Amino acid sequence: MLPDNMRRTTVVAFVLAISAGGSLSARLLAQTDDEKNTARDFGKQGQEALDRGDAKTAEDRYHRAVSIFDSAKANVPPTLLLGYARGAAKNNHFIAADEAYNRIIRAGLPPGAPAAFVAALEAAKKEIEAVVPHIARVTINITGCDSPAVTLDGVNVPNVALGVQKPVDPGTHEVKASAAGCKASSASFTVSDGKEATTSIALEKEAVVVANPNPNPNPNPNPNPNPNPNPNPNPPADTGGGSGLRVAGFVTLGLGGAGLIVGAITGGIAIGQHGDIQKVCGGGTCPASEKDAVSSYQTMGTLSTIGFVAGGVLAAAGVIMILVAPSSKKTEKTAWITPVIGLGTVGVTGRF
Question: Is the pTM of this model over 0.85?
Answer without folding.
Answer: no
